[in-house]
Model the fold of this input.
Amino acid sequence: MGKMFKDLDPDTMVRSPGITYQELLDTDSHDVPDVLRIQSPKDLGHSEFSVDGYISKNWHDKEVERMWKKIWQFVCREEDIPEPGDHYRYDIAGISFLILRKETSEIKAYPNSCLHRGRMLKEFDGHASELRCPFHGFCWHLDGSLKDIPADWDFPQIDKENFSLPELPIAIWGGFVFINPDQQCEPFEDFIKDMKTQFERWEPEKLYKQAHVAKIMPCNWKIAQEAFCEAYHVSGTHPQILRSLGCVNSQIDVWDNCARVITPSMTPSPLLDYELSDKDMMRTMMDLPPEAQVPELPEGMSPREFMANSSREDLRPNAGSKVDEYCDAEMLDSLDYTLFPNFHPWGAFNKIVYRFRPNGNDHRSAIMECIMLSPFQGERPPAAPIHWLKEHEKWSSALGFLGKVFDQDAFNMPKVQLGLESTYKSGIVLSGYQEGKVRWLHHKLTEWVGE
Done:
């Protein structure tokens, strides 16, 4: 980020009253890994950011040309295309790409376009032994080399040896497949370096895709994304979880291409103006009704340690002894990372991965996705297919308790869009620390889009 941001001293930065996240880690029943002891706060300033980023078609067009066509972006998991010939269609901002596995098991990516008249080669995910255009029958091998031209005598201008499908830069990290539409892009290793080292302990490549749910949201993709980039909104949007979530105790860390928000569980929000019993906190965390009995805490055990132990036993059948290596914080807390611009993997066994992107070329419509990753024993289970929710369907219909929280977030999104369309203010107002990841995203957008 160069000169734009200044490092802060973690001991003197402005933060919420009450226990800090690092102080909470000091109470952990297990050894805390170095990755959670890192602190990288940044002074992001207090400037406003233009509402045009949400409501302007011109801004959207600049995002497409200057960012989406030039940046590394997550497209699928390796297990989405496990066998040679398996292919996956990835669309972004009105552009379509084809990701497939060759006979040699290598993964390739091509523009989803026939070199003859431009017709899409594949409309759906699936399996194929060749890439044959449904329009006139031009055909390519899985490695992109030309296989067949019907009536090839009528195309003397085509050099068959050099009429291969253009290849896009591709990279694989943690079981995730990335592409970059820019064939002259920076190396992926440089792009992901800050986040890569922090995930080494958690080995996301050893997880499998348990669920994949998507829905079209009636708002700009950044509005949808920003709803999941800070915990400051919990008191207003999710008041039911204030008793077990230290929302404004979150630790915000910023690097170059990634940032994270760590929000502790099993510690009450400092925004509550009353004392909370251990049982009340546990009831909220366990989503128990008022009449249900709360488990008794063993002598000398905190609610946080108790819930972490419960999570360990729930995960043990699938994760094995790995659960004993993870500290309480890794079992309970929201370790929410973002790799710019729109990839959100959570650390440890939190399972969650978000992705947010424009819905075609509509700057007032977004695709929101939640992928759930899970540990497993033995042979890797097949990847769950994507489940598209219809407009009237709620996230809770597919994701249970987590979906209930999403439904509350989703309720806000079109209201934010309409409010920004209606505001007389030229910019949005952001806090200095709690909304630091949102600030970071806008600074990065400014670097790429140039506005």
